[in-house]
Amino acid sequence: MCDTTGTLDEALERLHATGPERHGRLTNHAPMAVEALVHRGQAPAVHRWLDRYAHKLEEPPPPSRPVTAADWREALGDPARVTDWTTFFTRELDGRPWREVLAEWWPRLLPGIAGGSAHPVIRTGHAVRTLLTSPETAPRRAELAHALGYWAARHLPLPPLTPLAAAPTAAAALEAVPPVPEQDGPLLGRLGQLTAFPVWGTAPDPDTARARLVELVTAATHRYATHGHGEPIMLVHAATAPNAVLRALPALPRALWAPSLAAAWAAAAAVTAAYTPAAAEPYAPTSLTPLEVFERAAAHGDDHTIKFTDTALDVGDPLALAAAVRSVELNPPVF
């Protein structure tokens, strides 16, 4: 949906005076949530939602030293340099078309997709969707700079993994992911316990890669309906992270689609391994329409619920809608 209200630009300008995290590790979800609200026709709710979220916003960290084209590698994965990274990408996007900048940096950032609990790539996916579907404005370009800067600062490759038996489908692959031994504490500690994933997420050509990425997003969204109770907030990322990659594909060279699928699979599998419960639970089908499901998520107000429901509407089938309703039930409401 093309935003003609100006609300998204107003919201982004408010948010660009704040940092990407609070308390040194908790992600600022507001840029992603407001983009989803506007995209799904809930622009009138955005500023009320932001007012309620404002107590979670902090000032950005102070700059350290400039990131340059010559020394960017030494700043990669350094969260203390996030403001330096945002300044770098702001300069890059001021001087070149945004698709060109994205195509250059996407393969550099992709190996660190799990950093920041995959929030940086999710924020990037929201920013790219806006630029692809709405007029290009200064706040929307700035949002891409903030998203890419956050991704660069939180860049975190996964540990080396042993390949397990190949899975025939994305759903089977997610089911076969071994859970980490100690499911306790934040995601970073759990990622260090990863040892092996089923073989899945490869493709012989770009079109197959896109089709399998759609399959992965669908499977992860469906799985939330029966497994979301394992960790209702964190397990949404098994779907929203690969969907962020899917949203970016139209802006990327086709040569990057297959590696994008592989990275999206790694992110979805990592979150699944870290938080999957011991057993599935039944879910209730819903008779709500997609519009009604998103209205319920917006009224609920939780940022993760809003973003997951946004992804569920991309999938659009009855089980995805039921999964979105399940997220409303599992996560605590804001309003």
Please describe the topology of this protein.
Blueprint: H1 7-15, E1 21-22, E2 26-27, H2 30-39, H3 46-53, H4 72-75, H5 82-95, H6 98-109, H7 119-133, H8 138-153, E3 162-164, H9 170-176, H10 187-191, E4 196-198, H11 206-227, H12 237-248, H13 257-275, H14 290-300, H15 303-315, H16 318-330
Parallel strand pairs: 3-4
Antiparallel strand pairs: 1-2
| Cα-based radius of gyration, to the nearest Å | 19 Å
Mean pLDDT: 97
Largest sheet: 2 strands, antiparallel
Low-confidence runs of at least 5 consecutive residues: none
Largest beta sheet: strand ordering? 1-2
Q: How much of the residues is beta strand, in percent?
A: under 5%
Helix content: 55-70%
Distance between the termini: 25 Å
Structural class: mainly alpha
The global form is globular
N-to-C SSE series?
HEEHHHHHHHEHHEHHHHHH
> What is the count of helical runs?
16
**Count of individual beta strands:** 4
